[in-house]
């Protein structure tokens, strides 16, 4: 029997952007095509945490960021959490992503990564990231909803990606959306049209919590745990 992790590996191996032409100055970020590290990291992660054939409930973010999934290939998992919490070797720069800090604090409160990933899987309606090149030559994270042109261009790719994610073995009774603003508005709109899930629970995005509500982090961790325990 094929494990959930083997399906996840194949999903990412075949992952290419199939949407419309991106707006000028925006490019796709695909660690599985740009890095030799990400495929090996995913294989190790899948073998350790996704090795059963059981179905999972899904938590959906926005799209990968440059310092987390954009490096490791594992959603909301920066190199530091990958090495220190997940126990997977990493010999590159120790990038830091605030969202990853919250997610792994929440996972620790749940019972640890083995217990968490046995029941849940994290990805995004747009499983590839976007970056924008600024006038100074530096690149910054860009969300699929940051411009109407990008949202329209990426929409067909996101619809296809959600179907493919569900086909991995995702429960469709309830999904969690990370983001209570533009992300859930867009995702709920797709869900109303295509019926991916019976219900979507929206929770505050980890980046928002760490940037604006860090003193109340434990309140939001409890809120996440309550939602997970209801599934």
Automatic annotation (TrEMBL):
Give all residue intervals belonging to the Uracil-DNA glycosylase-like domain: 54-229
* Lineage: superkingdom: Bacteria
What Pfam families is this protein classified in? UDG
Q: What is this protein called?
A: Uracil-DNA glycosylase-like domain-containing protein
Species for this entry: Flavihumibacter petaseus NBRC 106054
